[in-house]
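During the second year of the project, the team shifted from modelling isolated chains to modelling whole assemblies. The rationale, set out in the original proposal, was that interfaces cannot be judged from single-chain predictions alone. As a representative example for this report, we include one of the complexes processed in the last quarter. Its constituent sequences, exactly as entered into the pipeline, are reproduced here:
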Amino acid sequence: MSFRDHIRLCNNYDPARVVPLIAGNDRIGLLRRDNAAALQRFPHVFAVEDDKARLLASGDAAVVSQAVEGVVDALVAENRVPKWRNETFDVAPRWGAPPVFRLDRGAVPFFGTRAYGVHLNGYIRERNELYLWVGRRAPDKRVAPNKLDNVVAGGIGNGHGVEETLLKEGEEEASIPTGLSKGAVPAGAVSYRMETSLGIRDDVLFVYDLDMPADFVPENRDGEIVRFELMPVAAVIERVRATEDFKFNVNLVLLDFALRHGVLRPDDPEYLEVATGLHRPLD
Amino acid sequence: MSFRDHIRLCNNYDPARVVPLIAGNDRIGLLRRDNAAALQRFPHVFAVEDDKARLLASGDAAVVSQAVEGVVDALVAENRVPKWRNETFDVAPRWGAPPVFRLDRGAVPFFGTRAYGVHLNGYIRERNELYLWVGRRAPDKRVAPNKLDNVVAGGIGNGHGVEETLLKEGEEEASIPTGLSKGAVPAGAVSYRMETSLGIRDDVLFVYDLDMPADFVPENRDGEIVRFELMPVAAVIERVRATEDFKFNVNLVLLDFALRHGVLRPDDPEYLEVATGLHRPLD
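Output from the structure prediction step:
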């Protein structure tokens, strides 16, 4: 592995394998061609053409969501979509725009709608050295079981804000009191577009840094993390470079952290690939 | 103006207006079609075809540089290239690769070869507020006269390293002792591709932050900056948002600084455009 391998893995998207999903005049998703073909069975909800698919269901978000839910039900029965996650994401042409509908998280890659998450780099500084709190994901996680993760990370469910999600996930995943996590500093976003077995992940991760008290030990409450460990950031980055121990997108968040804090330096042969590879422009 | 206007201005590159400049198997530049046509007069140095131009001169960097210098001489005489800057940049297929030739800085946009620079955000922190040192460029600067600038910024000339350039420019432009500027923290790179009247700027700016002593006042030595001023970073960013007072690419460096330090926050309507718009992937 190398840094660039992690970046490539998260950006393996090939536009030739995909058609846009259109609502009105806006693209709201990216359908792999096999997934688009599977929607032909639902002509009251989707019009599937050679070069695009169009959402036909209209009305307010609740009405459209119900129509799409019927489709997702059938896709789950066909095993094209994993079972319901019972957590819905807003689907909109861009961040901040009113949602066209809400979609169960499990169906998001099938439709290739953009998903937003929050990742927190929880660090301590001791004698000018940085250490990062790292979590080990539970073995029963659907995505990336047993992989290493940021101290807090979560998807932004419909109707929830960025900071609100950070505070909620901070409590559930790491028992971080909101009085502490409110001090987290927003530091940009990591973005990538990735084809997986299910479809397209078109992801934007809001990134925060939190300077944590040296005596605070994170503790998981929701069963998603089995163990936390404090690691020197230089060791974290060498592990990113050499292994796939971290969840695929967490590698990118950690590289962004290392860049911003001067842990990676311009004499690293991959410096510019990292500096220009973590922020796929949105379109 | 808005943040996105600054990003768009620096990324107004249109591939349809350009052909690649090829050396061996590598692209080393981007020639606007009118500039490519102007090279047809030099068939011993360049082979100009419909969809590309090829460097024919071969040999070591010194030999090729000399052949290209003859061409640049003629282009200067025709006013296609501004007069010699007497400072040369390495031309290479990618950062760190051996140079194919060296090119006078004034001719870089004509050939659209990638140029590298260093920008330093010199800041002080007082009562949890950040202030940035800002310079006013001299009225006789060829590029962006009278515009506001980072405290230190300079191109990386051939054979010089990133940190070496930072230290040298820090002394010349702002009288920063090298003992101080050695403490600057590398924080990534800003990249963009821009068409100007001269051709294509394909720029990569290495970015550093320097926490400056509160009692240090920068002083210019080389005549390139007429005045330095300490400004609250929030005021700097509002000035970026509303005006064109800063040099075109400095807006991007300042937005990157504001993002990394939590001065811009996710509730800003342009947050994601900024977070994903400052790091054009290299190709």
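The radius of gyration of chain A is 19 Å. Chain A has a mean pLDDT of 97.
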